[in-house]
Amino acid sequence: MIAFSTRWSRFLRERRFGPGEHDSILQPMISDKQATLFEHCARGLDQSLSVGDHGLPLIGTGIGTMAWNRVGELGKGESVWLGWFLHSTIMKLAPFAEARGEQARATACGGTPTPSVTR
Predict the structure, then answer these.
(1) pTM, whole model, 2 decimals?
(2) pLDDT tens for residues 20-45?
(3) Nearest CA-CA partner of 42 in 113, 109, 101
(4) Closest Cα to residue 104, out of 96, 113, 95?
(5) Tens digit of pLDDT for each residue in 61-85?
(6) Cβ distance 57 to 86 under 8 Å?
(7) Which residues contact 89 (CB under 8 A, 6 or more apart)?
(8) Phi, psi (degrees; rounded to nearest 5) at 43
(9) What count of other Cβ atoms lies within 10 Å of the Cβ of residue 95?
């Protein structure tokens, strides 16, 4: 658990998609920005929490398989599978957030809330 929370890694960077673009086959560049592996995971999960009309996670575009690549092109592609995957992943992140002292994230991930102390 310690390595996951303390190991640093660089981000990859790529240009944003332009209008009408759905994917990219370019080699991403290594960014100067870096963060712990935990922070990489937390940021990725934060980016995936948008939901559609039915309360299911939006699947997005640029998936990498041609059959699914444009499912979320109009911002409406929802996925039950992605919901299950996110739930499982977010629940597994809670103990790491607790160990890092990130109680708000741990609670949001389904961890045990820390009782507040009143003085």
Answers:
(1) 0.69
(2) 776 667 788 898 999 888 888 888 88
(3) 109
(4) 113
(5) 665 655 666 676 676 788 888 899 8
(6) yes
(7) 41, 45
(8) -65, -40
(9) 14
Q: Quick one: three-class SS letters along the chain?
A: CHHHHHCEEEEEECCCCCCCCCCCCCCCEEEEEEEEHHHHHHHHHHHCCCECCCCCEECCCCCCCCCCCCCCCCCCCECHHHHHHHHHHHHHHHHHHHHCCCHHHHHHCCCCCCCCCCC
Q: Find tokens 């699914």 and name the residue.
A: 68
Give the pair of three-digit tokens for residue 37: 């592996």
For tokens 């690549």, the residue is 69
